[in-house]
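User: I'm preparing a small set of examples for a lab meeting where we compare how different chains pack in three dimensions. I only have the primary sequence for this one, and I'd like the structure in token form so I can line it up with the others. Please keep the answer compact; I'll paste it straight into my notes.
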Amino acid sequence: MTAVTTAAAVRAGTLSARAAVQLSLSTIAATDGRVNAFTAVLEERALKRADLVDASPRRSRMRLAGVPFAVKNLFDVAGIATLAGSKIEATAAPARRDAVLVRRLEAEGAVLVGALNMDEYAYGFTTENSHAGACHNPHDLARISGGSSGGSAAAVAAGQVPLTLGSDTNGSIRVPASLCGTYGLKPTYGRLPRTGSYPFVASLDHLGPFARSVADLALCYDLLQGPDVDDPACAQRSIEPTADTLDRGAGGLRIGVLGGWFREMANPEALSAVDRVAEALGTTRLVELPEVQRARAAAFLITCAEGGALHLPDLRSRAQDFDPHTRDRFLANALVPAAWTVQAQRVRHWFARRVAKAFQTVDILIAPATPCTAPAIGTEWLEIGGQRLPARASMGLLTQPISCIGLPVATVPLWGCNPAAPHLPIGVQLIAAPWREDLCLRVAAALEAQGMCSAPIAELP
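Assistant: Understood. Below is the structure token output for the 461-residue chain.
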């Protein structure tokens, strides 16, 4: 069942919230030994919360009544330590209250069932976590789930929960959504408050949802919206519902396909996915953005400087407790000269202005979400665009230039684009101008309605 159909059944009284949550908990118990999406399952809390939903006089008005969901373990969950994928934070005091986005979903009847695996401190694209173990792709358990929100995508793909929350700094929603075959939404920077989540790069961090249908994604996003005074980046904008606009379709929208870097750094399966989406939407318009490679480099430098500075005290005192995949990079990052970061911010703002000009002539831009389908766990090198590149960093080649300037993106999953592995999904980014998440979701819904995109539950061996 989807989030929408589950909530409708609980509101109508044909399904209890407790039964919906018990089904989710049973599925997690039966599958997570193979997937490793969860780092904490909150059975007692979840069943108590479900009983409160069933007894609530507001149940018939709760838009997510009884819907189980889970969150990346960098969201605060009252009573447990906020790990952010690390060993170091395991000794921190438990969170005193839930993150603001968790509270917003539970206010509408959703039920939190657990916390999810991720790359340490959100610094990675693979969720090969040395502390919690690798998160496995439900569609092929030998392959990565993507990252850093790998557990968030894998839990949805495995049918453990219909909704999850993750974070995206350089691609950490879009990459795992692409590799695990789910829908994902990275909203505009500043759209959703990050209060109660562990930071990575404050000037680039976004939070957003994963789901198996566009209707679920849009509904969840709508319920997450609203300003928060405790997040200085969260814009003071009115709530703009999107779920009610999905049936407007993509007709009349000006749609362009990103060329240049976005085709040069994509393998044939990624290009096939984009071309299929472009054909389905009836567009042949090619859009070239200037200096995309420099925009990606700017995102890298800003990430290095802010991430290294954030963790410098622990790097000095307990470097041995970091995941080896992140430790050396954080140490190097702490040495980035300030002048480099200043120049990176200049490039970032210059690039944002140039992309804004592109949106004067188009409403949606299409690009691959990842350069390839999911590689095997442990892969160190990839061949992309005729180049041999490091695998872990290169999964974000096509996402970093977009999040660098905070644009909203819906990622939609396609299948059969890789003839050598037709069982593997790959995602396409639907990119809009700031604050136009509604356009991303409208196009995603149109593609879903055509049967071009879908997010089936994986058939685990």
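A couple of notes for your slides: Residues 3-450 form a domain with the Amidase signature (AS) enzymes fold (CATH 3.90.1300.10). The mean pLDDT is 97.

User: Perfect, thanks.
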